[in-house]
Amino acid sequence: MGKLIRIEVENFKSYKGSQTIGPFHQFTSVIGPNGSGKSNLMEAISFVLGVQSAELRSHNLKDMIYRSEAMSNDGTSAGGHSPRRASVTAVYQNSQGREFKFMRIVTSDGRTEFRINDRVVTYSKYNSSLEKENILVKAKNFLVFQGDVESIASQSPKDLTQLIEQISGSWEYKDEYEKAKVEMEQAAENSAHAFIKKRGLAAEIKQYEAQRKEAEIFDEKVKDRRECVLQYLLWKLYHIEMKTNSLTEEKDQKYFASTEAKNQQDTLEYQFRAARENKALLHRERTRLELQIRRIQKELEDQVPNSIKSKEKIIHLEKKLKQTEFNIERVKRDGQQQEEVVHSLEKDIELLLAAEREYSEASAAVSPEDTPQLTLQQAKDYERRKEEVNNKAADEQQQLYQFHRQYRTQQQRTNELRMKLESLEESEVETIGKIKDAEAEIAKITADGQTSTEKLQERQNELSKLVEERESIHRREAALNEKLQKTLTKLLDANLTLHDTEKDSKFNDSITTMKQIYPNVHGKLSDLCRPAQRKYDNAIATVFGRNMDAIVVEDEATAIECIRHMKEQHIPSATFLPLHSLLVQPLNHNLSSLVKGARHAIDLVKFDSQYEQVVRYACGNTVVCDNLNIAKTICFDMNESVRAVTLDGTVIHPSGLMTGGSAPTQPVTKWHESEVEELMRQRDAYLAELHEISLNKRMGSLEDSVRNEQARLQAKVDSLNEDLMAANRKIEGLNGTLQDIRNKIAEVKQPLAEGTLYMEQLDEKIAEVRRRIAEVEDQVFEDFCALINVANIREYEAKVQNGSDEVSERRAQLASQKKRLLTQLAFEKQQLNELTERFQTLETSHAADMALKNQIETELNGMGGRKEALTAKLEASKQESAAKIKEEEEKQKEITELTSILEAKGKDVKQILKEVGSIETEISKYHAERVAIFRKCKLEGINLPMTQGSMDDIVVEGEEITHGENMATDDSSISSMDVDEPPSQTSIMTSDWTIEVDYSRVGKLQRNDGSQDVDKDFQDEIKKLTEEIEKMAPNLNAVDRLESVEESLKAAEDEFSIARSAAKATKERFMAIKQKRFSKFYDAFSHISEQIDKVYKDLTKNDTFPLGGTAYLSLEDSDEPYSEGIKYHAMPPMKRFRDMEQLSGGEKSVAALALLFAIHSYKPSPFFVLDEVDAALDNANLATVAAYIRQNATDRFQFIVISLKHLLYEKAQSLVGIYRDQENNSSKTMTLMLDQYQE
Question: How far apart are CA 624 and CA 540, in angstroms?
Answer without folding.
Answer: 8
